């Protein structure tokens, strides 16, 4: 039964914030308990469990390392550039397509530089064909997903940065499954290359008939599985490959890349110092610590104010306007006073530095929570806009294929599909 069909029994809980006590109605949480560590704190997994390493791939290497590796394989260094061109501009890893490489050494060269990283297990497409959700199996059987979406004037890919996630957010399907492992740089990049290949093959629908331009992924959002800032180095190396000019990288614009985080404050500071102007998004979901402690367990380490200060610093250092994500959960975090408190906290840190993206919650299978009513969503947005904070409700694209945020999880159904193709 979908979670939205359940009407959870309501109970009243007085909530203390600044000012007079306010009563809120909260869904009862029977059937769900927060996973805790040995000290009784909400469970957080920062370290990636040890598993066999994915094969080293051209996209894991710097251009210099690629040349060195090609020489190691007994070929002149300039072959590295040819391989990069095949991979980053023709989106191919198939030696049969690489007729500019010497036939005798081609297999060995391609095998050494572009080893297979992932197998497509299943693909779900919306009726209009403009959204595709891919389920991939990595070399060790771990499953990850990416979602490709066509919008007017842009094509966005939602990528995964970890198999599973260690952040344990109760409303997110991925969060409930725990962390399997970090993805490698090349595994992150490969999702884009495979999406570009699908686009080049005409597999993404919704294209205007009179548009003859060469198309490819223009925007990346790190909003698939995983907490990107918990896999910092590999994610940043992947970003560097995305923005490196062709043929050494994908030649994408940093501004079109959004890194979204639960709020790992030291990593946000580091990101601000990278000098790569990516778009930064903070998954806030509550403006008071009492509720955020529950919704985002990492709030036990870094509080709302610390996360917002780090977000503001990101703006100051990069000049890039920050996004605040806020999943609207019925009777949980959608109260008008919470919109006001959010506006107050954002305005206290200055004007024009931030916008808010509320997203109606996508109920995950078995979840006790559901999305807010439309009038409540609209009131939440109106209050923020009235307070001078630009706020736009995000369209939960791909709902019919569970491609929208949260339901990115290796479902039982997905695992069964994986077993069939193994
Ligand atoms: N770890 C990163 C990326 C996670 S997914 C982060 O937390 O930002 C991207 C966004 O989807 C996050 O804001 C996340 O909180 C949100 N999300 C997760 N589950 C959701 C759900 N069921 N409905 C709506 N948004 C959800």
Describe the structure.
- The protein has 422 residues and is of the alpha/beta class.
- It is 31% helix and 18% strand.
- The protein is built from twelve helices and 13 strands.
- It has a nine-stranded mixed sheet, with helices on both faces. The protein has a two-stranded antiparallel sheet with strand order 1-2.
- A hairpin with a 6-residue loop joins β1 (10-15) and β2.
- It is globular and about 70 Å long.
- The structure holds S-adenosyl-L-homocysteine.
What's the total number of strands? 13
- Spatially, the strands of the biggest sheet line up as 3-4-5-6-9-10-11-12-13
Shape: globular
**Mean pLDDT across residues:** 87
Portion in helices: 25-40%
Strand content: 15-25%
Order of helices and strands: EEHHHEEEEEHEHEHEHEHHEHEHH
Largest sheet: 9 strands, mixed
Which class do the helix and strand fractions yield? alpha/beta
Distance between the termini: 30 Å
Rg computed from alpha carbons, rounded to a whole number of angstroms = 22 Å
Low confidence ranges:
1-31, 410-422
Bound molecules: S-adenosyl-L-homocysteine
Number of helices: 12
Layout of strands and helices, then pairs:
Layout: E1 10-15, E2 22-27, H1 63-72, H2 79-89, H3 103-113, E3 118-125, E4 131-138, E5 143-151, E6 154-158, E7 162-164, H4 173-177, E8 179-182, H5 185-200, E9 219-222, H6 232-243, E10 257-261, H7 265-272, E11 279-283, H8 289-295, H9 304-318, E12 322-328, H10 336-347, E13 354-360, H11 374-386, H12 412-421
Parallel strand pairs: 6-9, 9-10, 10-11, 11-12, 12-13
Antiparallel strand pairs: 1-2, 3-4, 4-5, 5-6, 7-8
The chain binds S-adenosyl-L-homocysteine.
The site of S-adenosyl-L-homocysteine has 18 residues, from strand 10 and strand 12.
